[in-house]
Amino acid sequence: MSHYIRPLPHAFDFLRAVGAAGKRRVLVTNAHTKSVALKLRLTGLGALLDELVVSHDLGAPKEDPRFWARLRGVLPYDPSRALLVDDSVPVLKAAQAAGIGFVVAVTRPDTHQPERRVTDVPAVPSLSLLLPPTPKGTDSGSSRCR
Asked: What is the β-pairing status of strands 102-106 and 123-124?
């Protein structure tokens, strides 16, 4: 199944931009520790992360309010200043309810599938739309969420 494991388009650019802005890059995931390790090894994304939190280690999935309360115990952060990008609307709604200040859904997490319609939270089809604007004359698209 490893041939199916690929990072989202523009994931490296997005993580580099977040790091360049001086922000901490944390992957919070419901995936099992072994599958996360495999994905990070195959994609190389782990080199761009500052922290990794697996929901199983906290005893609750990201959809559960307990996850967000427990996350603050192992990873101090200001929820009102945090950004969560995810492809799951239930996860994003749980994060909002827990006080996460900025949530964004990726509506096309699988580039082999059509874009999903998301109306409950801000959404983008691609991480490229979350990148800072490029210098004048080189802009290849809007950087705003829909």
From this structure: parallel
CA distances from 31 to 56, 109, 122, 132 (A): 8, 15, 24, 29
Cα 125 from chain centroid (whole Å): 13
Residue 144 in any domain: the answer is: no
Q: Which helix (H) or strand (E) holds 74?
A: helix 65-74
What DSSP designation does 113 have? S
Number of domains the chain is built from = 1
pLDDT digit string, tens, across residues 81-111: 999 999 999 999 999 999 999 999 999 988 8
Q: Which CATH number fits the domain that encloses residue 73?
A: 3.40.50.1000
Q: Can you say how many angstroms the Cα of residue 115 is from the centroid of all Cα atoms in its chain?
A: 17
Q: Cβ distance 57 to 31 under 8 Å?
A: no
Q: Cα 72 vs. chain centroid, distance in angstroms?
A: 17
